[in-house]
Amino acid sequence: MKIDLIISADDIKREKVEGKSVVVIDMLRATSVIVTAINNGCQGIIPVLTVEEAFTIANRDRKVYVLGGEREALKIDGFNFSNSPLEYKRNSVEGKNLVITTSNGTRAIRGSVGAKNILIGALINARAVADRLIELNNDIVIVNAGTYGQFSMDDFICSGYIIHCIADKKSDIELTDISKTASYIYGENKDVLRFIKGATHYKRMKELKLDHDLNYCCQKDIIEVVPEYRDGLIS
Ligand code: MLT
What cofactor does this protein call for (predicted)? Predict the structure, then answer.
């Protein structure tokens, strides 16, 4: 089982993900939102690239669809939710269909089409993701959403933790140089919140006083569900 890693949504190449088990990571905050919403009973999530596309789908029936996401980390006008995972509580999302658009995370999910499986991962469900990847028993590509096409420390260290969780249970894994580096970085920095203090998106969230989101997203393994994207829908 080979484990490779792609550092941003802009760097995804179809031939790299085709036929592989992909896990998309945008721990601050898109994939943390998706994992939380599904864990709280959200029926399905449709990731879209533009705000217009989101409204077009949701306007089919505003009782069935709710809208969530961000631009520049802020709530979008006319949307029900921002991109704070703390808003996706059971009483808000249970039985609902969420249409979501974010700057990097939803692009990374959509960009991974062609993979055999597209799992949604974050620190909050990392160990469950690792277990599912072992079960799938296929070559793995960890897709980091990154930040506007740039490498991001948060997604990278989260990937390192997932690799550690896989390595705990499986010895015959082959790491590319970049996944080896992610694993090494996590091994040296197990306090994820502390490590990501220098990250660009961490700083943006601090400016916006989103400390509760940062604390929530930096918890390891509080959720067991592993959402999967298939035929346009995450469930
Ligand atoms: C993204 O998709 O870029 C993020 O989730 C951004 C955010 O949460 O602010």
Answer: Mg(2+)
Q: What is the pLDDT of residues 94-121, one digit of tens each?
A: 999 999 999 999 999 999 999 999 999 9
Q: How would residue 74 be classed by pLDDT, with cut points 50, 70 and 90?
A: very high
pLDDT at site 121:
98
The residue whose CB lies within 8 Å of the most ligand 1 atoms, and thus the one to mutate among 36, 104, 147, 205, is 104
Write the DSSP assignment of the chain as a string of letters.
Answer: -EEEEE-SGGG--HHHHTTSEEEEE-TTTHHHHHHHHHHTT--EEEE-S-HHHHHHHHTT-TTTEEEEE-BTTBPPTT-SB-S-GGG--HHHHTT-EEEEE-SSHHHHHHHTBTBSEEEEE-GGGHHHHHHHHHHHTS-EEEEE--BTTB--HHHHHHHHHHHHHHHHH-S--EE-HHHHHHHHHHHH---HHHHGGG-HHHHHHHHTT-HHHHHHHT--S------EEETTEE-
CA–centroid distance, 37 to ligand 1, in Å, is 15
- Domains of the chain (ranges, CATH numbers): 2-234 (3.90.1560.10)
Q: Is the CB of 23 under 6 A from ligand 1?
A: no
pTM: 0.98
Q: Residue 196 C-alpha to ligand 1 middle, in angstroms?
A: 15
132 pLDDT band, cuts 50/70/90, is very high
Q: Which of 79, 201, 213 to mutate to test the pocket of ligand 1 (most atoms within 8 A of CB)?
A: 201
